[in-house]
Design goal:
Length: about 190
């Protein structure tokens, strides 16, 4: 699968040439906050099911709690992510990078709490125990390259999983996530 080059429009905070579906679940970053971290997550809705529109509905605050029994347990949550990468490699943006998406929850990394303040959240369609698709890894490395070009404070060591910033509370992107691939391919 061939993908076009990706570029961040710093003025709008959007990744050019991807679908943008605005989420209401975001707010302003603290004044002067430097974006220096990328947090990788895994999500599927309903859990373990891929290819549905439920993740988009969830991030948009439009999840039908009656569409699946699990949805009634999460419909009260106000969650978003900057990006969602489907198993096909399609990228959807929900929150501009210059805004704070609500993806990390209670979190801590390298001496700082409230990771939403200084991070960009990328959700991969998946689960902790089903391997992610090659198309997702390819898109993820391209997205990271574009983000690192736009936000020079994002070092390679500041690309982490949700489990790294919320240990004991979160496990994603899970043990099947191929960190070695990512480390070899992130420029």
């Amino acid at each position: 699968m061939m993908f076009n080059m990706l570029k961040v429009n710093k003025e709008s905070g959007l990744l050019e040439s991807v679908v943008y579906q605005p989420s209401p679940h975001c707010d302003e970053r603290p004044v002067g906050m430097v974006i220096d971290t990328i947090v990788i997550h895994g999500i599927s809705l309903p859990p373990g099911e891929f290819g549905t529109s439920a993740v988009e509905a969830f991030f948009a605050g439009k999840l039908d709690k009656n569409a699946h029994p699990y949805f009634s347990t999460i419909d009260h949550l106000r969650v978003s992510s900057h990006l969602f990468i489907r198993r096909t490699g399609e990228v959807i943006q929900f929150v501009p990078f210059n805004k704070r998406a609500w993806h990390a929850g209670e979190s801590f990394f390298e001496g700082k709490s409230h990771c939403n303040d200084f991070s960009i959240g990328i959700e991969l369609e998946g689960t902790d125990d089903v391997p992610y698709e090659q198309a997702q890894y390819q898109q993820l490395t391209r997205v990271i390259a574009a983000l690192r070009e736009a936000y020079e404070n994002i070092g390679r060591h500041r690309i982490v999983g949700h489990a790294d910033i919320a240990p004991g509370r979160k496990t994603d992107p899970g043990p099947v996530f191929d960190w070695n691939y990512l480390r070899r391919n992130v420029v």
